[in-house]
Design goal:
With 521 residues, this protein is α/β, with parallel strands linked by helices. Helix content is 33%, strand content 23%. The strands form 4 sheets. A 6-stranded mixed β-sheet has the order 6-7-8-3-9-10, with helices on both faces. Helix 4 packs across helix 5 and helix 14 packs across helix 15. The longest helix is centred in the middle third of the chain and has 16 residues. The N terminus and C terminus are likely disordered.
Length: 521
């Protein structure tokens, strides 16, 4: 474990020591400690709810600390706003930047400080030239004149980095920046991060992906339950050691798949077609089976699931549940037939984000809980409590708002909501995206247990290790068609990727592979 810098060593760019922050009776941060030196990339890792986000928000000026030491560039600071933080040389690059979509790229970079010419008019030529110089410095090509609307997440992040450089930021915090990026985009972002490190800037990199942490970072700090645990040089530690510190225990097999006895066919999809999206999709799923829909981002996997469930329409084909035809474009009929659907975007599509845990869990079965047309909070709590307990939702009360929960607990609440309907078929889209290693293992174990109890599961995942670790059968989707059906014994990284891409050369693809992001937190 690293201690304070030795005497004579340069003062760190950022020092946080024993920083605490509470919201009412809830202690979000008990003893946050982080020291980041110029010319280094420092990883900050921990399970969801470990206190990382609160620590970052204190650095960004969103929250003020209650106690502890906070120094920037050798001086004590106490930011009361994000403007103060930016003015002092701090830039935070979030997973999903918030640019002004109708302004140009250059206008977003120089918002509020545009170069002025004669008559104090905005000197657009200079603004465009300076923007191009920033992008050249970063080694990327982005037209500074184009509107920000329609830019990829990756390009938006590069624009935020260019803005930070234009402000001469000494500290850049990158909060889960790769979650929505393809492999090629991640490589470009990492090249930019290394160039910033080589310029002498200090970077903090927050990620759940260990492969990225070990590829990019020099040092790693671990947090757990709002407290500092350890700091190590990347060269002196291993993934297993970091995981053990993060969760406070040894994590069992990340993919605890138990072979299940398969029952009758419960779902039959025949010749499903939607013009321009997917074509001639046919497959079946048996009770107790986990079938994975694998493929590249944009291959049509989620669209197939949404059409079967009834969220989207389809042009031709049929769906049968337990031998009975399922009306198309009718989610209510799907629920009645025993289908549950956990969407990829849990915050926007899976939760009433301002609703309580109990209200969310009971939301699909409210009709069964009402008495004389009235639904009481007590009835919601009684219905939700067993499912919250079964899924080990970490919350002190069922009336806690979903918006205040970690990503992993939000995913458990969405799962609890649908399991309360007692389905026979579960569609789950990206079941562990954005959640930490401990919760990921819990979700995998839950899926395996549910399959063992006879639930048929269709799992959509972009993480190849998850597909190979959890599926009894893999259906690979390529350009809207099922290009391969592989039994568990025959599914390998190579066979899945060949089918996913239509050729043997898999470099630069968007499906997470063993070589680029296999070890995730």
């Amino acid at each position: 474990m690293s201690d304070l810098p030795a005497k004579g060593a340069p003062s760190p760019t950022l020092v946080l020591r024993d920083v605490a922050k509470s919201f009412g009776a809830v202690a979000a941060l008990k003893s946050g400690t982080l020291e980041v030196s110029a010319g280094s990339i420092h990883a900050l890792v921990g399970e969801n709810g470990a206190g990382k986000s609160t620590l970052v928000k204190i650095v960004a000026g969103v929250h003020r600390r209650d106690a502890g030491v906070f120094e920037l560039l050798g001086q004590p600071v106490d930011f009361g706003s994000t403007a103060e933080s930016k003015g002092a040389g701090v830039a935070v690059i979030y997973q999903e930047p918030t640019l002004f979509p109708d302004l140009s790229v250059a206008e977003n970079i120089f918002m509020g400080r545009q170069p002025l010419g004669r008559g104090r008019a905005i000197d657009r030529a200079t603004m465009y030239a300076e923007s191009e110089a920033l992008f050249n410095r970063l080694g990327v090509v982005i037209d500074p004149r184009r509107p920000a609307r329609g830019l990829s997440i990756a390009d938006q992040q590069i624009i935020e980095i260019a803005k930070a450089i234009s402000l001469d930021a000494a500290l850049l915090v990158m909060d889960e920046p790769t979650a929505a990026l393809s492999g090629v985009e991640v490589d470009r972002l990492f090249a930019v991060a290394r160039s910033l490190r080589d310029e002498g800037r200090a970077l903090v990199f927050i990620s759940h992906r260990f492969e990225e942490v070990f590829d990019l970072c020099d040092t790693v700090t671990v947090m757990r339950d709002g407290e500092y645990v350890s700091t190590e040089a990347i060269a002196d530690t291993t993934v297993d050691e970091i995981v053990a510190r993060m969760v406070g225990r040894e994590v069992a097999d990340l993919f605890p798949k138990v072979p299940a006895e398969l029952g009758d066919v419960v779902l039959e999809v025949e010749g499903l077609n939607r013009r321009g999206t997917f074509h001639d999709v046919s497959f079946s799923v048996r009770a107790g089976e986990i079938v994975a829909l694998a493929g590249l981002v944009g291959a049509g996997r989620s669209e197939i699931a949404r059409a079967i469930y009834g969220v989207d329409a389809y042009d031709a084909g049929s769906v049968r549940v337990a031998g009975q035809p399922l009306p198309k474009h009718n989610p209510k009929a799907a629920i009645k037939a025993g289908i549950a659907f956990v969407p990829e975007d849990r915050r926007q599509q899976g939760l009433v984000i301002d609703g309580s845990v109990a209200r969310n869990i009971a939301s699909v079965i409210r009709g069964k809980l009402a008495t004389a047309g009235l639904l009481t909070t007590g009835a919601e709590n009684r219905a939700a409590a067993p499912w919250a307990a079964r899924l080990e939702v970490k919350t002190n009360a069922l009336d806690m708002h979903a918006a205040t929960m970690s990503g992993g607990n939000q995913q458990k609440v969405v799962l609890a909501k649908w399991l309360s309907t007692e389905p026979s078929i579960l569609f789950i889209d990206e079941p562990t995206r954005g959640i930490d290693v401990g919760t990921k293992s819990e979700v995998h174990r839950l899926l395996s247990d549910l399959a063992g109890q006879g639930l048929a599961i269709v799992m959509i995942s972009s993480e190849l290790p998850e597909v190979l670790g959890m599926a009894d059968r893999v259906l690979v989707v390529h350009e809207g068609r099922i290009s391969a059906e592989l039994d568990r014994a025959d599914a390998t990284p190579e066979s899945v990727m060949r089918a996913a891409t239509g050729h043997a050369d898999v470099r630069g693809t968007e499906l997470t592979t063993t070589s680029d992001r296999e070890v995730t937190a």
